[in-house]
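STRUCTURE:
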């Protein structure tokens, strides 16, 4: 939302930004139906958000069908990589190979 965007635009602090994409979501929807695709989206979002503090959750958004973005104050690339890698491990175990692809940038 605009309040969150303005907060990050006006902060003098360092910021870490990540964009994530759910790998193979289209194939899941096509082969198994949107019900399973929606479960995949929900599971991935839950695995990430459960590791975030209340304040950090304010910077976690779904921006498209299978895309999420995350903003966090501070230069915390390794911190967020660990969260995504842990989520990927659980997704892989629980969904037979599904995972998040991600790119993390920081200032």
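SEQUENCE:
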């Amino acid at each position: 939302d605009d309040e969150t965007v303005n907060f990050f635009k006006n902060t003098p602090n360092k910021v870490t930004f990540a964009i994530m994409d759910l790998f193979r979501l289209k194939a899941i929807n096509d082969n198994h139906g949107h019900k399973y695709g929606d479960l995949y989206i929900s599971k991935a979002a839950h695995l990430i958000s459960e590791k975030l503090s209340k304040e950090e959750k304010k910077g976690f958004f779904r921006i498209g069908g299978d895309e999420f973005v995350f903003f966090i104050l501070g230069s915390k690339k390794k911190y967020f990589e660990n969260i995504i890698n842990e989520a990927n491990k659980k997704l892989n175990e629980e969904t037979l190979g599904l995972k998040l692809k991600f790119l993390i940038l920081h200032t």
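REMARK: The chain is about 50% helix and 25% strand.
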